[in-house]
Write a structure and sequence with these properties.
Elements: E1 3-21, E2 24-38, E3 43-48, H1 61-76, H2 87-90, H3 98-116, H4 120-123, E4 130-132, E5 134-137, H5 143-155, E6 160-164, H6 171-180, E7 186-189, H7 199-205, E8 213-214, H8 223-231, E9 236-238, H9 245-254, E10 259-262, H10 264-267, H11 270-283, E11 287-289, H12 296-305, E12 329-330, E13 340-342, E14 352-353, H13 355-361, E15 362-369
Parallel strand pairs: 5-6, 6-7, 7-8, 8-9, 9-10, 10-11
Antiparallel strand pairs: 1-2, 1-15, 2-3, 4-13, 12-14
Length: 370
Amino acid sequence: MKIKSIEMREINLRLVHVFETSFGRTTERRILLVRVMDEDGTEGWGECTAGEGPFYCEEWIESAWATTKTYLVPMTLGREVERAAQVFALMKAVRGNRMAKAAIETACWDIEAQRAGVPLWQHLGGTQTEIACGVSIGIQDSPAALFAKIEKELAAGYQRIKIKIKPGWDAGIVEQLRVRFADIQLMVDANSAYTLADAPVFQAMDKHRLMMIEQPLAFDDMSDHAKLQRQIETPICLDESIRSSDDARKAIEMEACRIVNIKLGRVGGHAEAQRVERVCREAGVPVWCGGMLESGIGRAHNIAMATLPGFTLPGDVSASARYWEEDIIDPEVTVTPRGSINAPPTPGLGFKIRRERIEAVTVRKETYTV
């Protein structure tokens, strides 16, 4: 594969509902899309999952745009690789910036799968023809509003409910949830909002049979997570702390977690996601696919990744309609009545890119060709 052209686009998509975490509220997504074309004219699409500000991690839309334009495009444009798995190494000189790198890397995987004539999920080594789905529900204005949202998602068939928590909206709301929804699969996500001194908050949650507590402590921490895990019964799931397969190995060895959330952008693309999944699977640690409010392109890549055999827990991949009035792929992602998504049968991403829709929501574009 020779990379002949790279197109960068920023699109703006307004969320159907406000999404609030401990970082703040999101009402609109600014998304960097990357379209890569090879020497045969085959095009692949990738999505940078960086947020509107440097809060989830140090990357954000403006840094991703500048890094891609100034460094990553020159490092990859005109280069030839035998396999898409080698693309990430072309960008090795740039430290970090995994979300920006993933946009180019995943687009190349899309091309490679199309050229092989197989769905991307099969090309990656996926073994599951459908994936179990959960939902992530942001912090609400009241318990009643949260209950109403959960009832709606359960009626839609989703198999697992995740709620965002922050200091003051944590153990008390979980207790109320368990009174209202005694038997649902329930987990909480703290997005690094707590410290080890808050251990009593999580000890109070042990009696409520949570599937896991996701990233309760610092985004770059493993040591304190290991200490906290020894103080509570509920499994800790690491998210922000796991940026590579080496991180996963260290976290497992330290017993800093019992579950790992894999996000394509956070680890730098499909090749590293495969390695993280393998490390966890061989250690007997279940993984699941986290979400970053992706458009249909990022969602399609998540579906493909989540078919790998180690993804045994319901992930955050859910229907397009939960987020957007109109997505940028056809068909839009839908969820079956049993709370699952079927892996697409057609080559590549398995979804048609709606070019006219993308053009309508594009706010800037740059194209580089050799």
